[in-house]
Amino acid sequence: MKALLVLEDGTVFKGHGYGAEGETTGEVVFNTSMTGYQEILTDPSYAGQIVTMTYPMIGNYGVNDEDNESKASHVKGFVVREGVSDYSNYRATGGLEDWLRKNNIVGIKEIDTRALTKRIRTKGAMRGVISTTDISPESLREKALETPGLLGQNLVRQVTTEEAYTY
Fold this sequence. Notes:
Strand order of the largest sheet: 1-2-8-6-4-3-9
CATH class: Alpha Beta
Oligomer: single chain
Order of helices and strands: EEEHEEEEHEHEHH
CATH superfamily: Carbamoyl-phosphate synthase small subunit, N-terminal domain
CATH topology: Glucose Oxidase, domain 1
Largest sheet: 7 strands, mixed, barrel
Helix content: 10-25%
Number of domains: 1
CATH architecture: 3-Layer(bba) Sandwich
Number of strands: 9
């Protein structure tokens, strides 16, 4: 399925949906790790953000419950160059794309993540929208501009547990 990532400055990246279908907004950031995508997706410090992975192949070792950093994912979206569907790891209990769907995380793949990373590095983090349902760049840019920034949001309240638990 076709998907778009549109930044608040009007930059458009065309790709294919990866994970859940739909639309999501957030602050677009990047991570340069070669491994650890599951830990990144479940790291509460990424709350409210659309995370771009700069390493070109993501998903090659699957997912498992032991690698989660928290009980839930708090990212708003996920961006990869190539989403690998054939994973190989004796610890894996499933594939990344299925995990993204199960956790209702809208993503996009097959875009130029190097160009996106350079743009963010040069201009700073920007609000953006990933959509598999609305493919109008103009409409998506308006949605990006309407998205509240992270400044002033109480993200700690959103990611904190109600009760302490043993991990």
